Amino acid sequence: MPTKRQQRQPRKQKRQPRRRPRRRNRNNRTNNALVPYAAMIADPCNCTLLPGLHGTSEGLLARVKKTLFNATDDTCGYVLWIPDYSCNFGDYNERVPPTSVKCGNLFIWSSKQPDHQPYNFKVDLESKMAYGGQLSDNFVPATEFSSAYTSTDPAAVLVSGDIVQDSRTLSACIKMKYTGQLYNASGEIAFIQDLPLASILYGATDNEAASVNQLFQQATQTGRFGSDTAEVISRPDETSHVFRTDRSTPIEITDAENASTRISAEGKSQGPNVFGFAWRGLAIPDGQAANLTFEFIKNIEWRPEPISGLTHATPRVINTIPKTQSAVKYLDDHSSSWSTKLMSGIGEVSKLALSGAWSATKSIVKAGFEQGLKTLPYTAPLLLM
Predict the structure, then answer these.
(1) Per-residue pLDDT tens for 140-188?
(2) Are 178 and 291 in contact (CB under 8 A)?
(3) What is the CA radius of gyration of the chain?
(4) Which residue ranges form the domains of the chain, and what is each CATH number?
(5) Residues with Cβ < 8 Å from 208, sequence gap 6 or more?
(6) CB of 149 within 8 A of CB of 158?
(7) DSSP 112-177
(8) Are 294 and 178 in contact (CB under 8 A)?
(9) Phi first, then psi: what are they for 322, rounded to 5°?
(10) Nearest CA to 92 among 244, 209, 205?
């Protein structure tokens, strides 16, 4: 007869349910990879430049900058920039012999009337100008038949040099800063974004381009003009990956008699975006200037000329899919206003000093300061003298 120990059956061990391995969040990995490229687009001034935004690495990276100052007494105007190009106002496509068609991608306009439309039909005998028909790095007061001026691109000097073959844009921005007296800071400002080329050249009247008021109607955001530094950031599009020379242009600027500036064939097919600032209603005392400073910052990837002596870089695939549109979507998902900024130029106390509430605030601050000094050593009251 079996003993009790022999009668005991071994206990069956319960099977532990298999734990499924944790799935890694692919979205987080994707977002982490996008962050450096999103930073390049959202902060062109301070970002770390990395290859691969457009998918490949084919050249060298550089940051360029240009500053313009508006010293006129005009109360309104605009700056418009097409940053995918790096025009140097040279002959379009290097035609030989030289033609009367120039290239340009940065335009400036200054006027006393926001309804004044820049002219776009050149007639020398009547002092009529074509749009962008003259080169200037200074704002010029408008006359009856004058037009916007062309300014060279920040990268034009580099790209038109002997060592650079062509370039493409990674990111760009414009900063607008008022440097005059604070109590004169008044008016309106418009942030211009994703404006079609046709909106610049074709205003409400034939042979006239868009006025300041017309740009305000198309602006994505408007606000009060003040002492804060305003910034507008370019939103790259599907054609930003294209390498271009300094003679590639979205607009054919004419210098010929009885002719108008028009959109180039390249501009029509690729449809690059225009961005910038417009302003109106500035309060400018007699004998003073608008005192507006504009900074144009641009990050580019450039390829050296074969005869420059620089080693040719073999194109490398960094990302199988360009990160441009994914990075823009990432920024849009996190903030709808990432491409426009207002950065305070003075502290809140300084702003308060301009208002009627400053005298009351000053007494409160001084009383609190004196009360705090009572707890300090005897020599502290000397600070109030």
Answers:
(1) 999 888 999 999 999 999 999 989 999 999 999 999 999 988 888 889 9
(2) yes
(3) 29
(4) 58-311 (2.60.120)
(5) 117, 118, 119, 120
(6) no
(7) S-TTPPPB---BGGGTB--TT-SB-SS-----TT--PEE---TTHHHHTSSSEEEEEEEEEEEEEE
(8) no
(9) -55, 140
(10) 244
